[in-house]
UniProtKB/TrEMBL annotation:
The gene is LOC103491402. This is Uncharacterized protein LOC103491402. It comes from Cucumis melo. SUPFAM superfamilies: HAD-like.
Length: 260
């Protein structure tokens, strides 16, 4: 049987590196500092406001702009990401080998801006592993042209519009695309658009997840079919001619590549 996956779309933060690096916690703290220092909200309200804006608008920036605050995306990202402890993201040679052993197209799809995505991927040592990066700027190309804060509502995962832009830019057939993300809402949105979904960083599958992996490093064990022959994914005839041993050896090669 040939792999039914033609492309893998990976989230970045808390998917390609674990939540416990402390980056996510530092990011939340920076957002709260932004609300206090740049928007003048009281210290006590910042954590509640951050949570509420995230829940209602998808991000603090999206919420602030929707509410009429003229916050430039670059200024916000510069503040929130610029002071992150990037040194806590370590080179991951094992993940690099795993990604390079995957023969299909590989794309990053993150709500973060391009500067953060590039920096995080570089810290991980994953430069050159992905065909393209779909990020904040991809989903919000008109934002710099906005003449008022709420002219172009900010689009981010898990909004359907953001997901559709990503699928369009990636130029993929969702039925043959594996979508990996640590966020349950993003996974649900992906599933509703027909993607095959992998919930990352959890031990229990959410309703909309086809697979769950505690770490992205476990893909070989959990979804070995990624490494099945992809030369002619609809042509099962070709694979019918392949011996079972040959398919097994593909698995073993992939497993060996990641030291599994
Ligand atoms: Mg994430």
């Amino acid at each position: 049987m040939a792999s039914s996956f033609h492309c893998l779309i990976f989230d970045l933060d808390d998917t390609l590196y674990p939540f416990n690096t402390g980056i996510a916690t530092a990011c939340k703290k920076n957002i709260e500092d932004f609300l206090i220092e740049k928007c003048g909200f009281p210290k006590t309200q910042a954590p509640i406001l951050r949570t509420e804006l995230f829940k209602t608008y998808g991000s603090t920036l999206a919420g602030l702009r929707a509410l009429g605050y003229d916050i430039k995306a670059d200024d916000y990202h510069g503040f929130v990401h610029g002071r992150l402890p990037y040194d806590r993201i370590k080179q991951d040679f094992q993940l690099r080998r795993l990604l390079l052993s995957i023969p299909q197209r590989k794309i990053i799809f993150t709500n973060s801006d391009m500067i953060h995505a590039t920096k995080a991927l570089s810290r991980l040592g994953l430069e050159g592993c992905f065909e393209k990066i779909i990020c904040f700027e991809t989903m919000n190309p008109n934002l710099p042209k906005a003449t008022r804060p709420n002219e172009f509502p900010i689009l981010l995962k898990p909004s359907m519009d953001a997901m559709r832009i990503a699928l369009d830019v990636a130029d993929v057939d969702p039925r043959h695309t594996l979508f990996l993300d640590d966020n349950i809402r993003n996974i649900a949105a992906g599933k509703s658009l027909g993607l095959r979904t992998v919930l990352v960083g959890k031990t229990v599958k959410s309703k909309e997840a086809d697979y769950v992996v505690e770490s992205v490093h476990n893909l070989v064990q959990v979804i070995p079919e990624i490494w099945m022959n992809t030369a002619d994914s609809d042509g099962d005839d070709e694979m019918m001619n392949r011996s079972r041993n040959e398919v097994d050896s593909i698995h073993m090669t992939a497993a060996a590549a990641v030291g599994a």
